[in-house]
Amino acid sequence: RARHPGPPDGGWGWMIVAGCFLVTICTRAVTRCISIFFVEFQAYFGQDYARTAWIHSIVDCATMLCAPLGSLISNHVSCQVGIMLGGLLASAGLILSSFATSLEHLYLSLGVLTGLGFALCYSPAIAMVGKYFNKRKALAYGIAMSGSGIGTFILAPVVQLLIEQFSWRGALLILGGFVLNLCVCGALMRPIALKEDRKTAPEFLEQDYVPKAQKRDFKRMSVCSPLIKAWSHECLCYCSWKEYDFLLMPGFMVLAVSVLFMAYGCSPLFVYLVPYALSVGVSHHQAAFLMSILGVIDIIGNITFGWLTDRRCLKKHRHFCYLFAVGMDGLCCLFLPILQNFPLLVPFSFTFGYFDGAYVTLIPVVTADVVGTSSLSSALGVVYFLHAIPYLVSPPVAGWLVDTTGSYTASFLLCGFSMIFSSMLLCFARLAKKIKRTHLRSLTSDTGTKQHIWTNGAIAYSVTAELDQKEVEFLAADTNSYSNR
């Protein structure tokens, strides 16, 4: 395949966006619509909120927990193979779930198997969009991620209709056939080679004991090829470290902690919005319509925030746009317990859906700004992996609070405060970095120090001595590249 100097920002990239769009419909939208089955599962199996909520939790947890596996297959085998395999597994899980005789059966088939299939599709498809776009990256992600909202808008009433016509078993069987479209999405994912992705051989491969013939072979293959030669194990270790060295970056560490709290806060609402609406007297069709509203406004949030943050005035402030959207969703959760009829729940669905679409679009964009495009696939795998434990724990904890207190108030308040804390953590980290940078600039201006400011915000110095005119550079350890300022 030809090596491109940079992302083409178009061409086949729009087909990649279309493929990712379909992937988000078949994964995230289908996962959201599982909440419509919640009341049916609870009534059929006669279980409480907490035990029934584990189904949705395991799906989300498996999707995010296995995200690094999806990145690994995409990096070392093929993105196309990974997505097609994921489509087969997800479809098999939904079809087997239609024959379930217990909640434990659903935990394994609908939870583990379907979640694993979604994991093999989700993060590789999102990473492919980042490979093809740079200048219009946020817009491309906005369009691609809007599949979650469009899918929710369309599938929510359709799933409710399928349940009424064919029961929950028939609805799951039909969804299993629908999810097979992931195999078509995988066929669209044409790999692209960028110059910045080229892996150079570690120093020990250039020593004299490596034959010249092997060196020539090495240039024709990836450093991370399977174990072909005796030294390839060391090569794999070297490349594995290079793929995940961003884990030591302070900016990524703060983002990772923030993601944990954000994921805890956002998951229960998609599980309990429909049951909460039913508990305050909203009809089944109106409750499903609330999910549809949330989904279609999610689309507007995806595209408009993607387009806005690509503008020159906001491109440098993507982190603040992201934390603002997360904080607004947290505020929406705090107000939800006082909204107890359909006319009041409609504005909530509008507001929450818009800002949910906004920050979901910006997650890969902000991650790419922190770690760079070359590490984006691995970094997204880690970011979505961090969603796993909160997604697993938060719905059952919320269900336990509902069973214990008899209301949804405590559950929604905990979600709201968790998301607000996530936003404030990122805000304080960014402000602290800005204050530190300003302080260091003032010090260097007084001492005549020449600054090197690196792409992720770290600062290095080179102090010019008057006597010998030599520069001594103190380079930050957590950086990738820099530009003289």
TrEMBL record:
One Pfam family in the UniProt entry: MFS_1
InterPro entries: MFS, MFS_dom, MFS_trans_sf, Proton-linked_MCT
GO MF annotation terms: transmembrane transporter activity
Membrane-related topology note: Multi-pass membrane protein
PROSITE patterns assigned: MFS
GO cellular component, one term: basolateral plasma membrane
Domain Major facilitator superfamily (MFS) profile: 12-434
Domain of life: Eukaryota
Swiss-Prot/TrEMBL GO biological process terms: creatine transmembrane transport
Intracellular or extracellular location(s): Basolateral cell membrane
Chemical reaction(s) catalysed: creatine(in) = creatine(out); guanidinoacetate(in) = guanidinoacetate(out)
Spans traversing the lipid bilayer: 12-31, 81-100, 106-127, 139-163, 169-189, 252-275, 287-308, 320-339, 345-367, 379-402, 408-432
Keywords annotated in UniProt: Cell membrane, Membrane, Transmembrane, Transmembrane helix
SUPFAM superfamilies associated with the record: MFS general substrate transporter (SSF103473)
Sequence similarity: Belongs to the major facilitator superfamily. Monocarboxylate porter (TC 2.A.1.13) family.
Function noted in UniProt: Functions as a transporter for creatine and as well for its precursor guanidinoacetate. Transport of creatine and GAA is independent of resting membrane potential and extracellular Na(+), Cl(-), or pH. Contributes to the process of creatine biosynthesis and distribution.
Name listed for the protein in its UniProt record: Monocarboxylate transporter 12
Record organism: Uria aalge
Lineage of producing organism: Eukaryota, Metazoa, Chordata, Craniata, Vertebrata
Gene transcribed to yield this protein: Slc16a12
